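This section describes the prediction task in plain terms. A model, or a person checking by hand, is given the sequence of a single protein chain and must write out its three-dimensional structure as a string of tokens. No templates, partner chains or ligands are provided. The sample shown here is typical of the held-out split.
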Amino acid sequence: MTLERTAQTVEGVRRRRLQLSLMVNFFLLMALYSGVLGVLLPNQIAALDPANKANNLALLFAVTSVFSTLTTPIAGALSDRTRSRWGRRSPWIAIASVIGSICLFGVSWMTSFWALMVFWVMATVAYNSMQPAMTTVIADRFPPEARGVVSGIVGAGMTAGLTAGTVVAGYLAGAQVMAYALFALAIAASCLVFVVINRESSSADLPARPFSWIAFAKGFWISPKEHPDFAWAFAGRFTVYMGYQAIAAYMLYILRDYIGLSDGDSNIAIANMAILTLICLVASSLVSGWLSDRYQRRKPFVFGASLIMGCAMLAPLLLPNMTGMWIYAGIIGLGYGMFMSIDMALMTQVLPQSTEGDEGKDLGVLTTAVNIPQIISPVMAAVLLYLFDGDYSVIFIAAVIFVFGSALCVMPIRSVR
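The expected answer:
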């Protein structure tokens, strides 16, 4: 795989600085996603139309995720073709983050559901134009044998961000404009600093790649027959996020309508649960990444993570109260932290061999395994709630099936141990 076309592999102080910068960026991006999608938007949507909150939330996730799914691989492919003195990835990271943050701040002022959706869609498109470029930095600048460590560090940042964002949003839910502004400013500032202190080699002198819309579209099809490991990795990531997103998207409403908490108590509860998850996530991510590199194994960790996550989802079924939710919060942290820390390293090692510098596009395709569940799982959950008369336990049952299924998808992968 051609990984050193525009940026040489980093070593020493530059590597440590890049690892830390990636961790901070992904921490803030995941904090933004979890805080906005898990707390701020559900609260805002419920306030605008309480009777239709579940359906409207599902519609919002579905529409915005369609745009995310289309944007991510296209932006990844375009970043592969970008020619500038700032390199291929940096312009996308800097410009898209600023545009996304402007749109995100606009969401906080919207007083109708459809206006809110328009601004959130624009923010989502911008952030999903930035994310594949940032993810591809790992493939660009780190050798395969070192990606477990960086994946663990970045995974710890991502998982901690998912928790921290929920905590911050939960406590600031009553100060809507301030909460949105905080997330928007943080990610924009972090991305701008990132491109300055981790200067990418110029791509201006690289030969321009021929461009055809037909060839461009065909390039997004990666044959499962020719690249079975890529297909199995895609399927494993897809199914685990189908289960995880179905619960995460409705967590605030689960606490209110399944556990029986008030609106105010549910905002505090989701924040406090996130603190427990944070502790488990960080410990699991760092230890898993280190062990994965030490033994040069990826599959056992991803397999085990899926089983642990499935067990966590059983707790609220057996104990439909806050005790069950506390157990869920702790165990899901262990499983999801392990999964995220190793999954990124696994993804970079199943990419099709490329002589064209298509790593950004291919990683963008893999990212759709996260985005597509964001379309399907909330809609699936809304349909299940309708069919089972608002019984949230059916969402947990469906999630367990998907997450256990993910473990089976890892086993056929041959090129990674």
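For orientation: The chain has one domain: 12-201+224-410.
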